[in-house]
């Protein structure tokens, strides 16, 4: 579990420091303040910066548009590579400098780091090897001349793997280690909801544990307490069905977006044992009256399954429900607000203001605006 958070040169964050995290963490802030970026950073951290994951996040935002518009181009220039948007300011740093860092604020050696380097292939009769070159050694006329530009991933000061920036991410020729994506168990519930394939996969895992299957049903009963059973049907097992009795069977979606969102949160939570649960816009479709019970459920199973939860919200009802649920739990719960600094030294940079349980209670009782 992360006790604090440090993010450097990733998307909106030139340097973000959060001195305290809890098991349950709720993130607020205005639009374009970095809430979703923070979840992405945690996802990348948990997934060991796998190029497949990086590309999926870029593709989700439509930031690979140049690749889509020019599919026939065989040798993309370095500035046209789709990996550029993950770096602060949408531009690559100098070789070996100002790379991305994600991890604990307090445990520097354990941070995940991504730096850009250039390599040249040296061949002779006996061997073929890669040699790292510096920026001065690159050709002034063509920075890609006889060189491969790569992202190198390291953690704890140790090299993990590298992947090329000049190849298609979907057919990357760099060989990645088998454990490149196994740093932490992580589940991400996006605003667009989970895909049908993901739901089917997570449900299959639930079926291996009858006690967790029952808890998933208990969670959905917050919306309709007459649900007796859940099954997933369809050619690709993509349709969750609710069984009330032998005569009444309804697709989950018939209960509305809130029920589907709740189902996805619960599915992801019980499949995130010993890892992270990331939820973008927790309150989507959930009526304010059930949000305290939903948070109680999340607090309970985050403790039981050793899951660290990070969720974003724009809703005051969600904030108050989170604060209420935190009082019923022994776990540390943290609310933090992302905003832009007004100080001359770092004006415009994203900073975090942290509220522990006591400060949260003061804020909600006084109805102070923190969103």
Notes on the protein architecture:
This protein is α+β, with helices and mostly antiparallel strands and 371 residues long. It has a domain at 186-366: Rossmann fold. Helices cover 27% and strands 26% of the residues. The chain has helices at residues 35-46, 51-60, 65-69, 196-206, 210-220, 257-270, 291-304, 316-327, 357-366; strands at residues 5-10, 13-18, 24-29, 100-103, 112-123, 128-133, 148-155, 158-164, 186-189, 229-233, 239-243, 249-251, 276-279, 308-312, 333-340, 350-355. Strands 1, 2, 4, 5, 6, 7 and 8 form a 7-stranded antiparallel sheet that branches. A 6-stranded mixed sheet has the order 9-13-14-3-15-16, with helices on both faces. A 3-stranded antiparallel sheet has the order 10-11-12, covered by helices on one side. It starts with a strand and ends in a 5-residue tail after the last helix. 36% of the residues are buried.
SSE layout and pairing:
Elements: E1 5-10, E2 13-18, E3 24-29, H1 35-46, H2 51-60, H3 65-69, E4 100-103, E5 112-123, E6 128-133, E7 148-155, E8 158-164, E9 186-189, H4 196-206, H5 210-220, E10 229-233, E11 239-243, E12 249-251, H6 257-270, E13 276-279, H7 291-304, E14 308-312, H8 316-327, E15 333-340, E16 350-355, H9 357-366
Parallel strand pairs: 3-14, 3-15, 9-13, 13-14
Antiparallel strand pairs: 1-2, 1-4, 4-5, 5-6, 5-7, 7-8, 10-11, 11-12, 15-16
């Amino acid at each position: 579990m992360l006790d604090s958070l440090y993010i450097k040169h990733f998307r909106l964050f030139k340097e973000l420091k959060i001195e305290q995290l809890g098991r349950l963490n709720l993130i607020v802030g205005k639009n374009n303040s970095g809430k979703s970026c923070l979840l992405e950073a945690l996802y990348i951290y948990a997934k060991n910066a796998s190029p497949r994951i990086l590309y999926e996040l870029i593709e989700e935002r439509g930031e690979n548009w140049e690749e889509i518009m020019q599919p026939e181009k065989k040798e993309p220039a370095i500035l046209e590579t789709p990996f550029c948007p993950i770096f602060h300011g949408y531009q690559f740093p100098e070789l070996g400098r100002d790379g991305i860092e994600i991890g604990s604020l307090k445990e520097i050696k354990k941070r995940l780091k991504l730096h850009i380097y250039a390599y040249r292939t040296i061949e002779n009769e006996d061997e073929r090897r890669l040699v790292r070159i510096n920026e001065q050694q690159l050709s002034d006329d063509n920075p890609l001349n006889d060189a491969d530009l790569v992202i190198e991933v390291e953690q704890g000061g140790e090299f993990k793997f590298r992947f090329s920036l000049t190849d298609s991410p979907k057919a990357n020729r760099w060989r990645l280690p088998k454990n490149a994506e196994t740093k932490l168990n992580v589940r991400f519930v996006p605003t667009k909801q989970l895909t049908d394939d993901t739901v089917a996969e997570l449900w299959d895992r639930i079926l291996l544990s009858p006690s967790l299957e029952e808890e998933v049903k208990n969670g959905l009963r917050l919306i309709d307490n007459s649900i007796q059973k859940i099954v997933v049907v369809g050619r690709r097992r993509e349709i969750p069905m609710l069984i009330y009795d032998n005569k009444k069977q309804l697709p989950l979606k018939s209960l509305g977006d809130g029920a589907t969102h709740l189902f996805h949160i619960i599915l992801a939570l019980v499949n995130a044992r010993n890892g992270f649960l990331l939820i973008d816009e927790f309150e989507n479709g959930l009526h304010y009256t059930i949000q305290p019970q939903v948070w109680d459920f999340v607090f309970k199973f985050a403790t039981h399954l050793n899951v660290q939860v990070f969720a974003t919200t724009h809703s005051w009802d969600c904030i108050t429900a989170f604060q209420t649920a935190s009082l019923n739990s022994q776990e540390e719960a943290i609310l933090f607000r992302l905003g832009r600094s007004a100080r001359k030294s770092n004006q415009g940079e994203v900073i975090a203001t942290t509220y522990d349980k006591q400060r949260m209670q003061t804020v909600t009782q006084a109805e102070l605006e923190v969103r």
